[in-house]
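pinging the channel bc i need a second pair of eyes. not urgent but kinda urgent?? the chain im working w is below, pasted from the shared doc
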Amino acid sequence: MRRLRKNPNIHKGVAATVLLRGWNLASGCALPAQQSPDTGSSSNDGAREQDFSATRAHSEDAAVRPATTLTIPERVKIHEKSFTEPESLIGPVWGAAVGQLRDTPPEWGSGPDGFGIRVASGFGRSFISRTITLGVASTDQEDSRFTPSGEAGIWRRTRHAIVGIFVSRTRSGGSMPACSRFAGAYGAGFIANYWEPPSQNSTGHALERGSSALASSVGWHIWKEFWPDIRKPLHHRHE
């Protein structure tokens, strides 16, 4: 662990790999989402079967959502509401607990005061990340909200949750790279360098924080995808 911490190039390599892989996923999903299959211009049965197979395969990768246009007040309201979601409340505390166990950064200590600083740092990054996301999404007209797939199959639904980190919906109902989410995660990671102690305020650590934030979002998307199925048996059990 000490060797990893002392070598920022490792952090950069990991973060760059996550970013490149995510962008490739987003680019791969964005193109087919903007295409409209021709379902009535051909009478050839083989062509129809091919079109249907292509459409079904596309729905498995990233389902096309209905067109949606969010106004600035609606975006601000969604932004404000996001701070009361479990991800915003539990995430910083969980991250602080992990940092406390690892004694990272060591300058903050391992006592109650150190834990409080880590929690405050986590909430600060969360606030900055969501604010940057709001600004970028308002500019390029993304709708980065997660919507459950409504599909069957654990793998399909898990893949939908993962792809949802890298892809946002457009006003026309298609898909585009989730620029706002990347800007928010990595922007907050770099801004945090201003209050992080010397052992954690390098470029490599900023990239590591951004990548960790995206990885955390993957976990929360999977939770949102499957939570309705988990909640139903619990609800019936208490009736």
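so Residues 203-237 form the longest helix (35 residues). and The chain has nine helices and two strands. — does that match what u expected or am i reading it wrong
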